Amino acid sequence: MMTVLSERLRNLIVARKNPLSIRHAARTAAIAVVSYLVASLFRLPEAYWAAITTLIVVQSPETAMPVSAQYFAGTAVGAAVGGWAGTYFPGNVWIFGACVLAIGILFTPFGVERGAYRYASITLAIVMLVPSHTGWIAALHRFIEVSLGILVGLTISALWPERREE
């Protein structure tokens, strides 16, 4: 029983089709650092969000553009709803829950990917529930930080495309 379980676990974490390489790790680290530095140049209060976003969008070359589009759209909606809700109902968990539901209801008729909904809800949570982040300024900063992370990640990925290890 234990050997079957450990073999299944090993199959989940050991890559067969897309293994990690030193080249990939170095490229990812460089892009994340550049993204952080660019956001820092703009004196954004939480430049690390640019680096985090870059790490999300550059991890898979095949999905970088679709993930970026979902992340951008979701962040825009989450920041807009969070800016409003965080201004009038900062930290109110019930309003937060209602906003998460409202975003889902808004997205459903458009056939929006769950990723965009997830990013919208995460942005909403950060803008609305983190005590030092509530309101329109926090929403704008979050949107700019994420947008910069997407822009830097996609730009550097286009200039420095990832080569598949053979």
Description:
This protein is mainly alpha-helical. It contains seven helices and no strands. Helix 2 runs antiparallel to helix 3 (48-57), helix 4 crosses helix 5 (93-107) and helix 4 packs antiparallel against helix 7 (136-159).
One letter per element, helices H and strands E, the order comes to HHHHHHH
Total strand count, please?
0
Strand content: under 5%
Average pLDDT metric = 87
List the domain count as a whole number. Answer: 1
Helix content: over 70%
Biggest sheet descriptor: none
Alpha-carbon distance between the two ends? 35 Å
Cα Rg? 18 Å
Q: Which residues form runs of ≥5 with pLDDT under 50?
A: none
Structure classification: mainly alpha
Overall shape: globular
Number of helix segments? 7
Topology of this structure?
Layout: H1 2-13, H2 22-41, H3 48-57, H4 64-88, H5 93-107, H6 114-129, H7 136-159
Helix pairs in contact: 2-3, 2-7, 3-7, 4-5, 4-6, 4-7, 5-6
Offer a few descriptive terms.
mainly alpha; 73% helix; 166 residues
In short:
This protein is mainly alpha-helical and 166 residues long. The protein has helices spanning 2-13, 22-41, 48-57, 64-88, 93-107, 114-129, 136-159. The protein has one domain.
